[in-house]
Amino acid sequence: MVFLSVHSPDELRRMYDARFSRNLDYRKAIWAVLVSDWFTKYVRPTDTVLDLGCGYGEFINQIACGKKYGMDLNPDVSGFLNPDVTLLPQDCSARWPLPDAALDVVFTSNFFEHLPDKASLGRTLREARRCLRPGGRLICLGPNIRALHGEYWDFWDHYLPLTERSLAEGLEPAGLRAVHLSVPRGEDAKTVQVMTALHRQLATQGAHRADPVVALGGGSVGDLAGFVAATYMRGVPFVQVPTTLTGQVDAAIGGKVAVNLPEGKNLVGAFHQPVAVLADVATLATLPEREYRSGLAEVAKYALTLDPELLASLEADPSSLLRREPAALGPLVARCVRAKAAVVGADERDEAGRLVLNYGHTLGHALERLGAFAGRSHGEAIALGMVFAARLSEATGRAPRGLVARHARLLSSLGLESDAPLPPTEDVLAAMRMDKKYRGGVRFVLLEDVGRPFVEDDVPEDVVRATLEAMAPMGEAEG
Ligand SMILES: NC(=O)c1ccc[n+]([C@@H]2O[C@H](COP(=O)([O-])OP(=O)(O)OC[C@H]3O[C@@H](n4cnc5c(N)ncnc54)[C@H](O)[C@@H]3O)[C@@H](O)[C@H]2O)c1
Ligand SMILES: [Zn+2]
């Protein structure tokens, strides 16, 4: 019996050979790390394990356990499995040749999308349930159309687009309880409630001191997961895997982690450094344009304040960046990380030196606090904030003329506005005074020139006001 309606095992063999034979070594190396650093925590040395859709055996060959089974329809896989793996070459939705409760673990990785329909997925899950002992585990990586995009689904042998939610809906009737640790999208994830839910899930999963938390997502997920890791059992290791430009160049670097309160952003947090940051610029391909441009504003910030060479390269030609070419993005992200890491390394606890990273953020944060600016991105706010800081730098005579124009040119070449109308001046001033970094007088990061930032505590309020007014549209209300 063949479960693929449109092609035979032989066709399957050719299809897989064409797509995967070239990167077998690469896959094996990645799986060696996944198995040794992660999956061994869930598989005991005596467990009987079945790898469903075992493919070329990356998991089942490398996992340390008792009896090993692999199940796959592609006849080629027999040549790749170690001698201690018993191959069950069959359609997984037909009865498995195993007694009830014979398995401790059933493992699958990106497999269920290969099944032709939900009926066969249901039959497969029921067989998994039957063959697992009570308390046994189905460890299931993906498929998840929310996390895997584009090219992944462009494959003849992918039929079932599932998310962790739709898959869980299928698991429950088969008697399998799903545990997933996904969180709301974006800023909504950064709440005390979500944090507590994660703490409790770690506790019910029996997570221990050495179990790492992996933050896969944007800066919001990184801040949340980092704070969960900082506080669970007084601190467990965590790994940042940022998938937004902001995350890669900024949020994942430096160890500041936090959640929000209704009273304000990032009010509950810690300093907790990740053990590693893995940034893959390929993930940026699917980022919405607005999020991407928001990240470019932070890139412009590093260029203007810390890295004149980066500034020169952006000014020369930003087009490859705008096209998100990985060849351009890789070195760019690395450069920004170096710039931020150098500053953080000199002032990890945010006492003085780290303030320069706040360039453009005094006004930026104030704008974000104002309803009138709702719906705009962080990057749009700090783009205006940087123009404002440059104007202040010129107005106080600390910077040469031309700095503002240079900001405007750079930002507009990156698709960011530099002269959008501001909310009423008095509202902006009031919002600025609410800044965490406000101590007595409003504190600004200004530039003596590009690459030469300094912190200024006493910009006269009338200069601030006049500069804001010069940026606000004509006839704006006053306090
Ligand atoms: N800790 C720090 O030092 C630091 C620094 C800067 C920002 N932050 C925090 O980071 C957060 C903002 O992070 P952000 O700008 O990355 O936004 P985000 O994490 O809120 O993500 C923005 C949106 O993009 C989606 N997304 C993420 N990766 C994607 C991808 N590869 N393809 C398609 N969509 C994707 C997310 O689901 C979300 O809807 C804020 O909470 C901010 O306070 C922290
Ligand atoms: Zn920022």
Notes on the structure:
The model is unreliable at 1-6 and 474-479 (pLDDT under 50). This protein has 479 residues and is of the alpha/beta class. The strands form four sheets. A five-stranded parallel β-sheet has the order 3-2-1-4-5, with helices on one face. A three-stranded parallel β-sheet has the order 6-7-10. The protein has a two-stranded antiparallel ribbon with strand order 8-9. It has helices spanning 9-20, 24-37, 118-131, 164-171, 192-204, 219-231, 245-251, 289-305, 308-316, 319-322, 326-346, 361-369, 378-395, 403-413, 425-433, 461-471, and strands spanning 49-52, 68-71, 85-88, 103-109, 132-141, 213-217, 238-242, 256-261, 264-271, 276-277, 444-449, 452-456. It has three domains: 9-174, Rossmann fold, CATH 3.40.50.150; 186-279, Rossmann fold (3-Layer(aba) Sandwich), CATH 3.40.50; 290-471, Dehydroquinate synthase-like - alpha domain (Dehydroquinate synthase-like, alpha domain, Up-down Bundle). It is elongated. The chain contains 16 helices and twelve strands. The structure holds nicotinamide-adenine-dinucleotide and zinc ion. Zinc ion is lined by residues 250, 298, 361, 378, 382.
